[in-house]
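RESIDUES AND SHAPES:
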Amino acid sequence: MKTTLDLRDDLLARAKARAAQERTSLTRIIEEGLALRLRPERVRRRAVAPLPVSRCAGGLLDGIDASSNQSLYDAADAGQ
């Protein structure tokens, strides 16, 4: 089917250049672009597995501040 399109000059120039580079027609380039844009979305996200929860008792040793990176670094260095 024939139709008339108003395309940006720079976009048309790039499409023509791509068609020439690929030795195909401008019509084919436009058809491929439309087909890609109109294809059904296949975005199906797989379910995320729940993370395991520790049932262990305990926690941080006395004197370690969990809100301080420096305290955590110091405790890690002391454990070496």
Notes: Residues 9-38 form one domain. The mean pLDDT is 89. DSSP finds three helices and no strands in the chain. The first helix runs from residue 9 to 21.
